[in-house]
Amino acid sequence: MRNLDFDEVEVLITEDEIRKRVEVLGRQITQDYPDGELVVVGILKGAFIFMADLVRSIHRNVNVDFLEVSSYGTTAVSSGQVRIMKDLKHPIEGKHLLLVEDILDTGNTLKYVVNVMQQRDPSSIKICCLLDKPARRETAIQCDYVGFQVPDEFVVGYGLDYAEKYRNYPAICRICPETIEKFPKNGRNS
Ligand code: IMP
Ligand code: MG
Prior knowledge:
By secondary structure, this protein is of the alpha/beta class.
């Protein structure tokens, strides 16, 4: 099997570890939520694979919706300027909202999203992040469910990209500095 660019990564979290952790998160979420409508919102694009696995581990009725958010920056570092590129399809007023994000890095993206969502009067807002990189936090933000903590390194795979590459790699990996030099970034994180 050809791996093309994929040979320049080093696996940090294996497919098996991800699968087991996602099942635990799904069980916790299933137990924690009271009756009432639960809307699970995936933040595109990075959360799309995590979201697909997570909702299948939640054993109650959920509605699924997506929000596409971009944070602009010229390097592997987010700039803190957040924009909604695609909004939710349905209102969330009076419903439980669970935001599903790929990685909590500076916290700026989720801070912005939570502020926007709060104005729409959901009955609750919780956050589920696959990865948490606490070393880089700029904004205090509390995640209700976290998959794994990762070191202060750029990680890819299982939905996360570098310059739109590696999203389809099935494990979470670190990319080496040579890869960052090889593929210049287009300046947007999502
Ligand atoms: P924030 O810095 O917490 O606002 O994160 C912004 C976005 O940058 C995240 O939702 C990811 O899409 C992206 N991002 C941050 N760190 C990484 C990383 O290590 N790998 C891939 N994407 C990242
Ligand atoms: Mg993201």
